[in-house]
Amino acid sequence: MGERAAGHPGRRPDPADLAVVNEIAAGRGPVPRIDPVTGTATWRRPVTAGQLTVAFARDVVGTFTEPAISRIRMCAAGNCYLIYLDTSRPGNRRWCSMQRCGNRSKVRGHRDRGDKS
């Protein structure tokens, strides 16, 4: 995979950055509610940008701690620099997206095998 990006997998976040995330995550986030008509989860309105920032910071806390942090990966495609959270059951996903990079890799492999016959 290599070190193609500054925030590459395997590197722990800087403690100063985590302090900022922790401070934001301690704020007042959006208030969840159940819509009485549809029964779906929603947020009490209005939702502010500040509240969304708090919700995002709380997601960061969950992503940058175990077990999730050990599943942060960089796409295996040589021309893709996306970083993703591998949520597959076995934890062996290789590409950011099967529809994008995974498919391209499989097509390339198929063509390479076809050229050798």
UniProtKB/TrEMBL annotation:
InterPro entries: ABATE (IPR010852), ABATE_dom_sf (IPR023286), Znf_CGNR (IPR021005)
Domain Zinc finger CGNR: 71-113
Pfam family, one: ABATE
PANTHER family per the UniProt record, alphabetical: BLL6575 PROTEIN
Name used for this protein in its record: Zinc finger CGNR domain-containing protein
Source organism phylogeny: Bacteria, Bacillati, Actinomycetota, Actinomycetes, Micromonosporales
